Amino acid sequence: MKPDQSNQPEPFPRERIPPEILEWARQTFDEEEFLAQVREIEATGGLPLEDFIAEVEARARGK
Questions:
Q1: Alpha-carbon distance 9 to 44, whole Å?
Q2: Shortest CA distance to 37 belongs to which of 25, 29, 46, 24?
Q3: Reported pTM
Q4: Residue 26: half-sphere exposure toward Cβ, Cα within 13 Å
């Protein structure tokens, strides 16, 4: 039996996205490029975390 999760708060509250942010996102997002990259990941299995964790950690530290 699963516990009732209908009263669980969302982990990240949803907020309305300002129209100017949506417009910027629409102008900078290239759907074809995104889909091509998704297909490549699906075909190759992507990269192991070890191949790019140092870059992610450096960006998280702001370096």
A1: 37
A2: 46
A3: 0.49
A4: 7
